Amino acid sequence: MIALLAGWGGALPAMADPVPVRPEPGWTIDGTVLLSRHGMRGSTIPVRCGPETKGCLATDSKDPWPTLDVAAGHLTTAGYTRSVTMGTYYRRLYAAAGLLPPEGCITPSTLEFTSDAVERTVMTAGAIMDGMAPGCGLMDISIRQGLYRGASCGFEKAEAEKASQAFVGGSWQAVAEGKMARSLDVLSRTLGELPAGTCEKSGLPAGCHLSDLCATPAEAGPLAIAGGSSELFAMQYGGGLPADEIGWGRLAEAAGEPLGQAVTTATATHALYDSATWMPLYQATRLGSQTLNLVNEQLGEIAAGKGALFRFLSSHDDFILNVGGMLGLSWNLDSYNPYQIPPGGSVAFELWRNPEGARFVRLVYRAQTLDQLRENTALDVDHPPAAQVMVPAKCAGAVAGACPLDQFSALVSAAIEPACVAKP
């Protein structure tokens, strides 16, 4: 897997060609299932806030975080408004594709919104709904506790750690001292002194910095704690916070780059660690079979002419990475790092039919760029978010990036471990 790391380290990827609304002229769409990550949130780790701290105490720095006025892990106001923007875009996109009417309210049975029982995913589904059908009144959101959690089917932490180590090329140390060295240095200088407890756990004296932590071939060391903070910088930037509040105003100087580029540089650590944690087949199959099975069932219903034509599954980054690992997908969206899961983005599983009637599944990852998030840029088919077509690794008969439905179904069936799927 080491070759997959070539794009890491902060260099902005070249803009991909715009993804056409239709894979080929004359193709018609039967429906789509969107597997989405929730929008921008506050830190998932509760931190003490109040006047005496001049903000919220950070878990990975002695300096206080900016106050985002939400409980731990909840969707921020900016996260909601940006998700509304994506909902508006989905309406315009799938109206152009011929799936939805371009104007007016949509027949409720045409749309289906499903979420697990987590505040940020429920609120994201509601925001997408607001963007797609403004002023039409709220439709039902199907909320299912543990929706993406499958059956317990055997998970050994030691085996998962070995799989993650192999994913990064065999040595966390080599990655930390190589491809991730610059990103870790930028983060170390941005974070400043780490909390005393973090230093103590690492066997270091108080006042230590991220750069004082060492990775080993089998242990991620600084990469294991750097990712969470770096992603919060992306949430701060995308949420429109003033530059002097993003990374305490130190991030751009630490990177020697414009602020947006510095965020990309810093978040390389998060993207790498998360993908290595959730994408290897060992953990992807055990933890992602439930999600991929859910997507496949919904596609099957659309193919059979049953139920809603547009289906939105409000989910989390780890489950998207699980599915990506199971299907052998790869992506690198504009302003992000390889395998990064932007807040509010989604993987669309689109069911298409060519003029001869043959059916295909096209997978498209769409997400607002960092600057589109920051400015809350209006989006339409002529001004789209970042997008990339993804072809499953073993799909040999793809046409215009779309996999024949029978091949796709066979690949999914082979990837899913039935024992890891929760029984109805």
Automatic annotation (TrEMBL):
What is the similarity comment for this entry? Belongs to the histidine acid phosphatase family.
| UniProt keyword list | Hydrolase
Record InterPro entries: His_Pase_clade-2, His_PPase_superfam, Histidine_acid_phosphatase
Q: What is its EC number?
A: 3.1.3.2, 3.1.3.26
Q: Which Gene3D superfamilies match?
A: Phosphoglycerate mutase-like (3.40.50.1240)
Molecular function, one GO term: inositol hexakisphosphate 4-phosphatase activity
Origin organism of this chain? Kaistia geumhonensis
Principal EC category? hydrolase
Classify the source by domain of life. Answer: Bacteria
Q: What is this protein called?
A: 4-phytase/acid phosphatase
By its UniProt entry, which Pfam families does this protein fall under? His_Phos_2 (PF00328)
